[in-house]
Amino acid sequence: MMRANDERKGLRMLDIGCHLSISKGYLAIAKEAASLGASTFQFFTRNPRGGKARAIDPADVEAFRVFAAERGIKRILAHAPYTLNPASATEKTREFADMVLAEDLARMENTPGQLYNMHPGSHVGQGADVGVELVATALNRALRPEQSTVLLLETMAGKGTELGRSFEELAAVIARVELSDKVGVCLDTCHVWDAGYDIAGDLDGVLREFDRVVGLDRLRAIHLNDSLNPRGARKDRHARVGEGCIGFEALSGVTRHPLLCDLPFYLETPQEDPSGYADEIARLRAAW
Ligand code: FE
Ligand code: FE
Ligand code: ZN
Question: Residue 257: pLDDT above 90?
Answer without folding.
Answer: yes
